[in-house]
Amino acid sequence: NWTAAAFVAETVNHIREKAGDRKVIMALSGGVDSTVAATLIHKAVGPNLYCVFVDNGLLRKNEFDQVLDSYRHMGLNIRGVDASALFYEKLRDVSSPEEKRKIIGGLFIDVFQAEAEKIKDIAFLGQGTIYPDVIESVSVNGPSATIKSHHNVGGLPEKMHLQLIEPLRFLFKDEVRRIGREIGVDEAILERHPFPGPGLAIRILGAVSPEKIALLQEADDIYIRSLKDSGNYHQVWQAGTILLPVQSVGVMGDERTYEYTAALRAVTSHDGMTADWAHLPYDFLAKVSNDIINRVKGINRVVYDISSKPPATIEWE
Ligand code: XMP
């Protein structure tokens, strides 16, 4: 008879016995899994948990500061590392999706390792691995299986020679949310949409530049805030904005424009393996389109993606 309270008590004890008074390091992402895992480990080892949150420059608008703030409020010992310049430099002129993923994954490990070396005598690596990650990293089927093993669980453990602490290894997402609720993790974090590790880099088709990231951040911020304000955010499983490499003609006042197109994506799903496009109300889409085109200079056209997975994927890259 599984209860969240019993799981928490047992897991915290178990981590405490395993770690003793040794140090644990952990990378946080602002997502549900890493946040709940860190909170459990923190309950067990307190200030011996060293958290690192890397700004790869590919996060959503204001996300780095907001997430860092909420971690500090939770009492976590967290270091924010702004590595965006490094990521932009290495991503310049790179347009292949897989190449982008490799560069981002590799740089992330470098930055995290450099932080780890600043702290003496670390013995453990904490990770927010959940059961589907474990299954997917051993399965060979499907593109998202290889994609996710690449970014979520791959790389770090092999490179760092640390023992792993993975308190969520046998849990599904809904159980992770229940545990999170039990230990008081902010509802806004628990109910957040999934966000890919490579971030906005795979939502900018083709080469990434700081200018394009800024454009996409503005448009996406309008979209996501509108979803929340209208009560639609929790009706969809994931939503995001994609910046297309297409420029088209428009008219603004009495000027002709030649600007980019933003595609809005929203899907319903259970696990991300299959998905249907969300049937958002036309009035809602009309308002978001107007707001983006009127407020974001550089975008003069908005389209809505009505493809399901399969055969399309949720992300465009
Ligand atoms: P696709 O696009 O394959 O996405 O239908 C399925 C889910 O996986 C996320 N996704 C990723 N997550 N690293 C991640 O951590 C990645 O490289 C990656 N690619 C896709 C996507 O956002 C969706 O939730």
From TrEMBL:
Keyword Calcium listed: no
Subunit details: Homodimer.
Pathway: Purine metabolism; GMP biosynthesis; GMP from XMP (L-Gln route): step 1/1
Enzyme Commission number: 6.3.5.2
Domain GMPS ATP-PPase: 2-192
Group of enzyme by EC: ligase
Keywords, in A-Z order: ATP-binding, Glutamine amidotransferase, GMP biosynthesis, Ligase, Nucleotide-binding, Purine biosynthesis
Residues holding ATP: S29, G30, G31, V32, D33, S34, T35
Gene coding for it: guaA
Catalytic activity: XMP + L-glutamine + ATP + H2O = GMP + L-glutamate + AMP + diphosphate + 2 H(+)
Function: Catalyzes the synthesis of GMP from XMP.
Protein name per UniProt: GMP synthase [glutamine-hydrolyzing]
